[in-house]
Amino acid sequence: MAKEPASFLAGVSKATAVNKINSAIIFGEYGTGKTWLAASADEIADYSPVLIVDIEGSAAGVGRKYPNVDIVVADTHQKLEFIKNELLTKEHGYKTVIFDTLNVAQNRAEEHFRKLPENANNKFGVWADLKKWTIDFTREMHHADFLAIFIAHSQVDKDENTGRQTVTVKIAGAARTDVPAVPDLIGYLRFDTDEDGNPIRVLQVGRSASIITKNRFGLPDVIYPSDGEGPTIFDIQKAILEVQDNGKKEEKVA
User: pTM for this one?
Assistant: First the structure.
């Protein structure tokens, strides 16, 4: 049993020292390279080794670029629950765990809750269970001692009054209003063009009139790739450190 610290003061640090991501949601359309972006955490010592919990069967090909990344298949709700509990209670050494994808995990959880005797002919009970499971799942992983990355698909919401359309993370049920409050970063992976007109992938993490994103680090609205065709976890972490470094310089000037 771990020894309790003498005081909470032993765990206090400066806010400027909080420069690592606890959890993130990377979302976007099919085929934009969401899993590859997440797997790039393997390039950073503080975030490696990396485990992909392959829920959807979409991790194929990752090994070509990141051969050191481990993969475990969670093709049922029961398997995902077992892996989740092992990650939280057993020694494993992984510094980044990728859940690919959150949408399919929700679909399987919903199916599981529909089969419970207490939810027979009880639609509200199913959705209440799904909401609780989804929020608990993301919160538990956010507070785990590794970086948790949730891969998700995108969806388009339309305001019936104004006709305005927004692209958001695809989350089923009432959990969609609570889950976005959990992670440190929600980024939309999309295609853009560079100065020469060549296609590149960029990560939208800030202000946009049509895309709902989030970051707690004051990052630029868009993360561009420093090398290659798409942004990596290195590019995100670099941007975080640059924001903090600029803040320290401003403090000295003041």
Answer: 0.90
